[in-house]
Write a structure and sequence with these properties.
The chain has 170 residues and is mainly α. The longest helix is centred in the middle third of the chain and has 24 residues. The radius of gyration is 20 Å and the shape is globular.
Length: 170
């Protein structure tokens, strides 16, 4: 391989790394941006604002804890967690909406299923429960989930829990 070819390969590698770094955290930042927009818009439905506020707080918590506990983790990991958080909350709200014609007890079971999926799958094992369980402990809050959640694992647990719950009804 000649010097020119090596330079070209190194330049291309450097260029691709720069593109990858620029795209890093793209998902995290987009989910956060959407959550902040909805949470701060006074014209938005109060329930949607509450859900958006949870997403914003969960994403902010995740970023701070990752920098503290996992400083070497990749931004891809953060993006995957942000996407999983968004998926989890959307799956939860869809499940609740679809169950509006069902008895209240069934809706409570759905909420318990998602709460358990969140609580049982911590990401950081943070002992600061007054922070991590702030939403979890609020009885009037729709998104009663732990901030310290591995959202990817929680999604899997919620899907399994919902399958079991639906099989009990049939």
């Amino acid at each position: 391989m000649n010097i020119q070819m090596i330079k070209r390969t190194l330049f291309l590698s450097f260029f691709l790394c720069c593109i990858t770094l620029c795209q890093a955290q793209e998902v995290y930042l987009e989910v956060l941006r959407n959550a902040r927009t909805l949470a701060t818009d006074s014209k938005t439905n109060p329930t949607i604002r509450q859900i958006a506020q949870f997403k914003q707080d969960a994403l902010d918590y995740m970023l701070v804890k990752m920098r503290e506990v996992m400083p070497d983790s990749s931004t891809i990991f953060l993006d995957k967690q942000a996407m999983a958080l968004n998926t989890f909350v959307n799956f939860y709200t869809k499940s609740i909406i679809e169950a509006t014609e069902m008895p209240d007890a069934y809706q409570v079971e759905i909420q318990k299923c998602f709460m358990d999926a969140s609580y049982s799958n911590p990401l950081f094992n943070d002992p600061e429960e007054d922070i991590t369980l702030a939403y979890f402990a609020k009885g009037d809050c729709l998104t009663r989930f732990s901030l310290d959640t591995d959202w990817r694992k929680a999604n899997i647990a919620a899907m399994k829990g919902m399958e079991q719950l639906k099989s009990k009804i049939k």
